[in-house]
Amino acid sequence: MKKIAVTAFVALSLAACQSGGSGIGTKQTVGALGGAAAGGVIGSQFGGGTGKLITTGVGTLLGAYLGSELGQSLDRADEGYAQRAATQAYAAPMGSTIQWNNPESGNRGTITPIRDGRDNSGNYCREYQQTVYVGGKAERANGTACQQPDGSWRIVS
């Protein structure tokens, strides 16, 4: 039981030390750390001597992989909400702000079309401003999306 408590404390401490930027501190990273801790604890319950070290290592690696995959799917959920908002913004009146919110993660954002026109190929394009709030921190960006001949939209900058 003491091993479980120590392992959980170390994993949570490492997760708490993570900060934003370069993908560190994302739900995928935290999921990997939590999965590694849980997998290591479970693996340590099997075997003896060298075998115990091997099962602990395998459990840690497998747990990290599974935790990472779970965390990544949560990031994909944020992306899905943002993509639906972008699709609405492509058809919204100029200057309208479309909002999205992922109640699971608490992450949210806005996207506002600010200018439209045509590119060199004659495709209809929209310039937009977007703000994404992750962990309470705002990240702002501008971009341009152009409508393709099949009706889909592609971000070009």
TrEMBL record:
Subcellular locations according to the entry: Cell outer membrane
Signal sequence segment: 1-18
Membrane topology according to the record: Lipid-anchor
Keywords per UniProt: Lipoprotein, Palmitate, Plasmid, Signal
Coiled coil, from the record: none
Keyword Membrane appears in the UniProt entry: no
Domain Surface antigen: from-to ranges: 75-156
Bias (Polar residues) ranges: 96-110
Glycine zipper 2TM domain segment(s): 31-71
Chain spans, region Disordered: 96-122
Gene Ontology cellular component terms for the protein in this record: cell outer membrane
Broad class of where this protein is predominantly found: membrane
Assigned protein family: Belongs to the rickettsiale 17 kDa surface antigen family.
This protein's name: 17 kDa surface antigen
Gene source species: Azospirillum argentinense
